[in-house]
Design brief:
By secondary structure, the chain is α/β, with parallel strands linked by helices. The protein has a single domain, classed as Metallo-dependent phosphatases (Purple Acid Phosphatase, chain A, domain 2). The strands form 3 sheets. It has a 6-stranded mixed sheet with strand order 5-6-9-10-12-11, with helices on one face. A 5-stranded mixed sheet has the order 4-3-2-1-13, covered by helices on one side. A two-stranded parallel ribbon has the order 7-8. The N and C termini lie close together (about 5 Å).
Length: about 200
Amino acid sequence: MRILAVSDVEDDELLERLGQRDGNRRYDLVISCGDLGMSYLDCVATLANAPLLYVRGNHDVGYKDDPRLGGTDLDGRVERIAGLRIAGLEGSLDYRRGIVGYSQGEMRHRSVGLGLRAYLTGGIDILVTHAPPRGYGDLSDYPHQGFDAFNGLLDWLHPRVMVHGHVHLDYGMIERERTHPSGTRLVNAFGWHEIEL
């Protein structure tokens, strides 16, 4: 399965590539890790001719009120696509009013709920979040710290891949991919990135 993961910045080069209808660039799924406009996501999914799964990023406050966005909101859910079980959790640390944000405790509670659903229904292959796990691809400043609870989810469920955004690769020495101690492959989808499974 070839997945197109997108997050945080709209990329005209991606739209151009998708518009060229390159036969070698077929995607089975588009995953958004948040902070992208609804019209951009709709355009990406349409040009890729693939289903869209998404979580909201910290700046995506308008998604819930606007029915124009196609695709499936993964927040707190487990979805099956082409034999893969995919789950998601939205938002970042709640660092100011007016964002999609949660405290560490709130995300711990949400993660346990999602983890139980996933565990009781056969586990997950992919975890989609906006923020990274704490200590793995995050930064030291409060708004860009990851969630401790995600480390627990990875240790418990051992998904093959966790895809996140929020921490822009141009912030500094940020790796596109790394491996979590649980064995899960961590992918920062900033901009766009292809994932083969």
